[in-house]
């Protein structure tokens, strides 16, 4: 079964709860634009509480794991619903954060294609 745009957008809704409506709208547009380029995008994070942000900040510092954020709680756009994180969905089941892979074989890294689309929508 191939994952369709409708399913990708439905999956995003859970992660977009608490995100500013303008950001949520742009996230949906990002998913749509990437889909048109044959790239499936999953939103992995939207709003995060300060406590959740502090847990992520501790990772790789005072807790095991690698560092995944430079922002402490209260200093992340996630804490005010103005940020999203994403990953790629490959072969309808594999979640990927590889910034160099070219799964659609168009000689441009898929991650960078999504970043390009995100920048067009005003994301940094």
TrEMBL record:
Keyword Cell inner membrane carried by entry: no
Domain D-alanyl-D-alanine carboxypeptidase-like core: start-end pairs: 19-123
InterPro entries hit by this protein: DD-CPase-like, VanY-like_core_dom, Zn_M74/Hedgehog-like
Source taxon at top rank: Bacteria
A GO MF term: carboxypeptidase activity
Keywords in alphabetical order: Carboxypeptidase, Hydrolase, Protease
GO BP: any one term: proteolysis
Protein name: LAS superfamily LD-carboxypeptidase LdcB
Native species: [Anoxybacillus] calidus
């Amino acid at each position: 079964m191939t994952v369709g745009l409708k399913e990708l957008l439905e999956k995003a809704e859970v992660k977009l709860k608490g995100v500013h409506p303008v950001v949520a709208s742009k996230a949906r547009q990002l998913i749509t634009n990437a889909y048109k380029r044959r790239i499936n995008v999953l939103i992995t994070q939207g709003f995060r509480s300060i406590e959740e942000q502090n847990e992520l900040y501790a990772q790789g510092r005072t807790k095991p794991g690698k560092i995944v954020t430079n922002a402490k709680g209260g200093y992340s756009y996630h804490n005010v619903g103005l940020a999203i994180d994403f990953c790629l969905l490959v072969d309808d089941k594999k979640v990927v954060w590889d910034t160099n892979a070219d799964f659609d074989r168009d000689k441009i890294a898929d991650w960078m294609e999504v970043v390009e689309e995100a920048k067009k929508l005003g994301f940094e």
